[in-house]
Amino acid sequence: MSVTPTYKCVLLDIEGTTTPISFVHDRLFSYVKNNLVNFLNENWNSLELQEQIQLLREQAMKDVNNNVSDAILVPEKQQEGEKTNEDEIKKAIIQNIQWQMTINRKIGALKSFQGFMWKSGYESGELKGELFDDVLVALKKWKENGIKIYIFSSGSISAQQSLFKNSDKGNLSEYIDGYFDTSIGSKTEKSSYVNIAKEIQFEPKDILFLSDSVKEIISAKSVCYQTAVMERKNNIPLSDDDRKNNVIFTDFHQIFSHSFLNF
Asked: What are the coiled-coil residue ranges (predicted)?
């Protein structure tokens, strides 16, 4: 039985919430690792690629200045007429990205580069965004009820847009009212959720945030968001305290029969 929503807006995480963790780790991350060399070689003269490399270069300098362990610098491109150092730069880029991905770093320059590569993969048809079967039905139902829908993910906005535009359920862009990445703040920081509420012009109490991460849920809940933890297949197991202190859903269908009035 459906209940009248107590929220006016839904904010959705992606990995482990709308999309299987296995797709992100086994398909998207593997795509970057397996295609990085060829991608650099084939797109080396692209202005957009060079802009992405510059972001990596600037982040690497910050890492070195901040004494980040194992940070790998990306050399500057030589001026015209000087001896080319393309191979040196490419080698450094590969090492830099592999290092950051190994430690599962959620930093803007890396996420931007990954999103740039994934966009190419989606456009070529080699990648297809994977969504849980209940997601499309929920998106349609929220839209029919005038509920706004936003995405908040550590992946870049470009990567988010590519996934929903090129999903295995079709182009779902029409259902999404906006996207947020960590440029608005960390997903575990309270201020990020305050910033998002201001940006979309909703009171925090009118926003329902869904995520598989209890830490993210705690941050959102602390600033008066309505919240629920998604417990999908292969997500990180929840503790007894997690279950005691949070509303838990295993699919989106359950949301429409739940009243959020008391939390």
From this structure: none
Question: The domain 9-19+129-257 belongs to what CATH superfamily?
Answer: HAD superfamily/HAD-like (3.40.50.1000)
The DSSP symbol for 182 reads: G
Angle, in degrees to the nearest 10, between helices 29-43 and 86-102: 170
pTM of model > 0.85: yes
First-last CA distance in the chain: 20
Mean pLDDT in the chain?
Answer: 94
Q: By three-state DSSP, how is residue 221 classified?
A: helix
Delimit the CATH 3.40.50.1000 region(s) of the chain. Answer: 9-19+129-257
The CATH architecture assigned to 25-124 reads Orthogonal Bundle (1.10)
Helix (H, G, I), strand (E, B) or coil at 62: helix
pLDDT higher than threshold 50 for residue 263:
no
